[in-house]
Structure to design on (244 residues):
């Protein structure tokens, strides 16, 4: 235990206050009574210290996933005071909006206190997520920064809920699904220059209403891309142009 504690202190430095040994029974998930718990595989290190490794792959019959990545990835975590840590590997639990860390050269898993986290940038080398606490929004959640500018900033929030199998059959009529599912609900938010937060969607009518004060620029944008589907990429491009 002494060696593990020394490694924790060395790795976390100024962010030591952010870390607690993972309990794997996140309070935010208790409302989902049918949801499988975060079971772990036990490993043993020096001095008979028991540590745990987080499993990321759901059951084969499960649709979707509770984690942002399918394995540990690199990350930089910034706390409320501006201190940062990037040693170790990380993954993000979308259900509980929790960040987990695996210490370097060990199977020890730590649960980072999200109340102390200002932002975290996670990447697997191909995909990068910049997750931030946004004061104008719910600070219990993290928001993926898509565009940040002097005028407008665009963020995406992924709300993931566990939907258990509800299949029933009386021999004649069948209803429901045979599989469990982690269901993602995506919402977009724009922060205006005055600090106000506004939810929007990927519908042109909604966007035009939101940016009523920028009517000419918005209309010209949609004319220029009239043949394109309006998706997240196009919404981000629009916000970038409105910041110019």
């Amino acid at each position: 235990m002494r060696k593990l504690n020394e490694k924790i202190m060395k790795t976390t430095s100024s962010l030591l206050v952010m870390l607690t040994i993972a309990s794997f029974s996140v309070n935010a998930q208790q409302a989902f009574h049918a949801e499988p718990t975060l079971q772990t595989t036990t490993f043993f290190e020096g001095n008979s210290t028991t540590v745990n490794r987080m499993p990321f792959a759901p059951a084969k019959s499960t649709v979707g996933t509770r984690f942002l990545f399918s394995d540990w990835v690199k990350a930089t975590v910034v706390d409320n005071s501006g201190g940062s840590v990037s040693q170790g590997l990380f993954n993000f639990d979308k259900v509980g909006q929790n960040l987990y860390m695996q210490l370097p050269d060990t199977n020890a898993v730590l649960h980072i206190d999200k109340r102390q986290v200002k932002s975290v940038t996670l990447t697997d080398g191909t995909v990068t997520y910049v997750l931030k606490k946004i004061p104008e929004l719910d600070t219990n959640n993290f928001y993926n920064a898509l565009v940040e500018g002097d005028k407008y900033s665009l963020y995406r929030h992924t709300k993931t809920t566990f939907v258990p199998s509800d299949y029933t059959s009386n021999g004649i009529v069948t209803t429901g699904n045979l599989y469990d599912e982690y269901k993602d609900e995506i919402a977009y938010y724009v922060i205006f220059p005055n600090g106000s937060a506004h939810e929007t969607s990927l519908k042109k009518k909604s966007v035009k209403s939101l940016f009523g004060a920028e009517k000419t620029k918005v209309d010209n944008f949609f004319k220029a891309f009239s043949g394109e589907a309006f998706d997240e990429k196009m919404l981000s491009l629009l916000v970038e142009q409105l910041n110019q």
